[in-house]
Amino acid sequence: MKTDVIKLDADKAGSIDLDDAIFGLEPRADILHRVVRYQLAKRQQGTHKVKTRSETSYSTKKIYRQKGTGGARHGDRNAPIFRKGGVYKGPTPRSHAHDLPKKFRKLGLRHALSAKATAGELIVIENAEVAEGKTKALATAMKALGWKRALVIDGPEVNENFARAARNIEGLDVLPSQGANVYDILRRDTLVLTKAAVEALEARLK
Questions:
Q1: What digits encode the pLDDT tens for the residues 97-112?
Q2: Region Disordered: what ranges (predicted)?
Q3: Strand (E) or helix (H) holding 118
């Protein structure tokens, strides 16, 4: 499929052929959902923790004799039945990550790119470079182009001035091609790829 290439000042800079095997698929919500769940589960901290009866700070002495009191049989006050006792089978630190085959993750990225292309939310620019790392100039250019919530994916390395200028703009994310992922692509309204990013993604996903 063929698409126009523009510059940051909105001038045309020719056109580019996008690989249909990467940008022309019929997007599948089930594949995208599984990959997003995999990403979010992997980054979940899992540091929740409660104290068990062996970790609470009461005495371990039996609270009263076993028989003859007319009350229930008890050991120490750390039992879960008492206030401030230990918690039974509560959460402990663990990883929430689960496996997903590398081929499936690649397929998810293809479907995410295709979803943006199908929805008309994919823009290709010649390059993501600015002369100075000034936020104001880039914010003005973004407003003129109509980008409100955008993800810019560059080639193997992001231009330093562009990254500095974009750092303080709300709703604008910048990633190198190696950092392209399904969650970040879907969470922004507009996906902006440089020509270098298109080449790098096509090489990575073939």
A1: 999 999 999 999 999 9
A2: 64-99
A3: helix 102-118
Q: Give the model's pLDDT for residue 9.
A: 87
Helix (H, G, I), strand (E, B) or coil at 192: strand
122: pLDDT confidence band, cut at 50, 70 and 90?
very high
Count Cβ atoms below 10 Å from residue 3 Cβ, excluding itself. 16
Alpha carbons 96 and 121: distance in angstroms, whole number:
32
Whether residue 193 contacts residue 179, with contact meaning beta carbons closer than 8 Å, is answered with no
Q: Cα–Cα distances in Å, from 43 out to 47, 67, 97?
A: 12, 52, 8
pTM of the model: 0.83
Using alpha carbons, select from 202, 181, 177, 178 the residue that is nearest to residue 19.
202
Q: How does the average pLDDT of the chain come out, rounded?
A: 94
DSSP state of 9: T
pLDDT (mean) for 27-31: 96
Q: Where are the domains of the chain?
A: 2-45+97-205, 50-90
d(C-alpha 153, C-alpha 63), whole Å: 65
Tell me the three state secondary structure of residue 53.
coil
Residue with tokens 């008309």: 120
Percent of the chain with pLDDT over 70: 100
Q: What is the CATH number of domain 2-45+97-205?
A: 3.40.1370.10
